[in-house]
Design brief:
Its cofactor is heme. GO terms for molecular function: heme binding; iron ion binding; monooxygenase activity; oxidoreductase activity, acting on paired donors, with incorporation or reduction of molecular oxygen. Keywords: Heme, Iron, Membrane, Metal-binding, Monooxygenase, Oxidoreductase, Transmembrane, Transmembrane helix. Pfam families: p450. The protein is α+β, with helices and mostly antiparallel strands. The longest helix is centred in the middle third of the chain and has 32 residues. The chain has a single domain, classed as Cytochrome P450 (Cytochrome p450, Orthogonal Bundle), CATH 1.10.630.10. The N terminus is likely disordered. The protein has 18 helices and nine strands. The protein has a four-stranded mixed sheet with strand order 1-2-7-4. The protein has a three-stranded antiparallel sheet with strand order 3-9-8. It has a two-stranded antiparallel ribbon with strand order 5-6. Bound molecules: protoporphyrin IX containing FE. Protoporphyrin IX containing FE (HEM) binds next to α14 and α18. The site of protoporphyrin IX containing FE has 26 residues, from α14 and α18.
């Protein structure tokens, strides 16, 4: 939800003009009735037209965190025409996501949903109802159940080994001065995020589409670079605070140019998805009666032909579904591992302990396999600690109340946008000792947080949300993130480029639907295992 500086000044002009023009009328027409009829949670007084948008900065979770300190853990805001409620404590998170789960299960419909996901045709923007339930069931049955995930362990193993191979090649090239090295004094400086994107993209691509589509020379309509840009753009546009969503009469002006960008990104996605869909349809036609569905796209296309389906699936729904899952499966885990590596490079003691655990459990003559993860408790604690301080979606993703609800002594009217600030909860000194310190030890069995998991049952740690709408990809993410991280640490010795002190490493964030590092992490990777282990799958 970022307001770019130029857009912000344009917004200021529009808003000032609008406010001046409409002030008198609006003040008369202001929804006093809402305030009178409902006992809303406390919050700052909204301005006409803009509501409290003037209080929300470049990083909304931080602005909202500051406001919550003043107005309390259950707070009312107004974004343009829409009422907003924010929960910033364990108790309010429980109210929204467990006690009243069904009342807050919808999502607001936005321009991004309309333009970038086939008119909200996938899972993410879908209102609660038969179609959404059918989609979630399908995900569980075809992709994310334990049996299916286990059967695809070899796919994840191969792609992680390929990532280690590619990183080794990039590090060697950088060390030899052949590519974007520099700053490492002849050492191997690598841009980690690119590798993290690709490993996640390849895994989700093989799971959904049966093969890797985004590889050079594959005939795909998008190159790896274009696709990475497309995913970044998609996540930015779907998280951005688009003022036109909040002040509907501004939407025809498209004040920030976001809608134009959404249409452009949608076109590129569509070209890619049509290519994949056509390829799948050709095999179906070729194989006729012998056709067997091999991947999620096949399953969806078969369902699209099924006249008995509870809610019909159309071609655009197939594409929207795949798009939501490809986006969800690529960016989130990459962002998490990049934050984990940033924290480890800032905390050499933690890095040393993680390395010691890997050396002891895995040894020096193999890479880490998925089945090793349960034997690496410190690694698991690092993942939890990373997601506590750097939840990928700090405000979860916006929910919408379907009915009037009384919660925590206040009223929350139907149609209110609801956020849970997990970023605040992760920093709450009433919940966490020394909350600003990166201390995985707090999650090790026997310590106070030893029993806290991140699967939506413990409201102090909710990176995947909780309740019926929580992340369906959690099982995959909890396999990918520790597996990638463990192999990065086991296969390479890492340090910051020469001249960058640990305490100087920037930890600035940028905001979209996920919150990645503002500046991609660059670090020196030195191989430390026998050469044959870098040969790839
Ligand atoms: C570290 C990794 C991940 C994190 C932290 C994460 C987090 C989240 C969160 C917070 C939500 C919103 C939940 C809510 O509204 O309460 C969500 C929704 C979603 N996630 Fe994830 N996610 C991750 C990985 C994945 C993966 C790997 C996939 C798919 C392959 C995925 C697919 C989705 C989808 C489709 C939704 C929308 C579900 C719906 O609205 O019904 N996510 N995720």
């Amino acid at each position: 939800m970022e307001l770019a500086p130029s857009s912000a000044s344009f917004l200021a002009v529009v808003v000032a003009a609008a406010a001046a023009l409409f002030l008198a009328t609006i003040l008369r027409l202001r929804p006093r009735s809402t305030r009178n009829k409902y006992r809303l949670p406390p919050g700052p007084r909204p301005w006409p037209v803009i509501g409290n948008l003037n209080l929300i900065g470049r990083l909304p979770h931080r602005s909202i965190h500051e406001l919550s300190k003043r107005y309390g853990p259950l707070m009312s805001l107004r974004f343009g025409s829409f009422p907003v409620v924010v929960g910033s404590s364990v108790d309010t998170a429980r109210l929204f996501l467990r006690t009243h789960d069904l009342a807050f299960i919808d999502r607001p419909q936005t321009a991004a949903g309309k333009y970038t996901t086939y008119n909200c045709g996938g899972l993410f923007y879908q209102p609660y109802g038969a179609y959404w339930r059918q989609g979630r069931k399908l995900c569980q049955a075809e992709l994310f159940n334990e049996r299916r995930l286990t059967s695809l362990e070899h796919v994840r193993g191969e792609e992680v080994r390929a990532m280690v191979r590619d990183l080794h090649a990039a590090a060697s090239a950088a060390a030899a001065g052949c590519s974007g090295g520099g700053g490492g004094g002849g050492r191997a400086v690598v841009a980690l995020k690119e590798h993290l994107y690709m490993v996640n993209l390849h895994v989700i691509s093989r799971m959904l589409l049966g093969k890797k589509y985004i590889v050079d020379g594959s005939g795909s309509p998008a190159t790896p670079e274009e696709f990475r840009w497309l995913i970044d753009e998609h996540f930015f546009l779907n998280g951005v605070l688009n003022v036109a969503d909040m002040i509907p009469w501004l939407s025809c002006l498209d004040p920030h140019g976001y809608i134009k960008r959404m249409k452009r990104s949608a076109k590129m996605w569509d070209r890619f998805l049509e290519h994949v869909l056509d390829e799948h349809n050709r095999r179906r036609r070729r194989e006729g009666k012998d056709f067997v569905a091999m991947d999620m796209m096949d399953v969806l296309l078969e369902l699209a032909d099924d006249p008995n389906l509870e809610v019909p699936i159309k071609r655009d729904n197939v594409k929207a579904f795949i798009l939501d899952l490809m986006g969800g499966g690529t960016d989130t885990s990459a962002v998490t591992v990049e934050w984990a590596m940033s924290e480890l490079l800032r905390n050499p003691d933690v890095l040393a302990k993680a390395t010691e655990e890997l050396d002891r459990v895995i040894g020096q003559d193999r890479l880490v396999a998925e089945r090793d993860i349960p034997n690496l408790p410190y690694m698991e604690a690092i993942v939890k600690e990373t997601l506590r301080l750097h939840p990928v979606a700090p405000l979860l993703t916006p929910r919408l109340s379907r009915e009037d609800v009384s919660a925590g002594g206040y009223d929350i009217p139907a149609g209110t946008r609801v956020f849970v600030n997990t970023w605040s909860i992760g920093r709450d000194p009433a919940v966490w000792e020394a909350p600003m310190e990166f201390r995985p030890e707090r999650f090790v069995v026997g310590s106070r947080g030893g029993g806290v998991d991140l699967k939506g049952q413990h409201f102090e740690l909710l990176p995947f949300g909780s309740g019926r709408r929580m992340c369906p990809g959690m099982g995959l993410a909890l396999r990918m993130v520790p597996m990638i991280l463990a192999n990065l640490l086991h296969a390479f010795a890492w340090r910051l480029p020469d001249g960058v002190a640990a305490e100087e490493l920037s930890m600035e964030e940028t905001f979209g639907i996920t919150v990645p590092r503002l500046v991609p992490l660059e670090a020196i990777a030195e191989p430390k295992l026998p050469a044959r282990l870098y040969a790839g799958p």
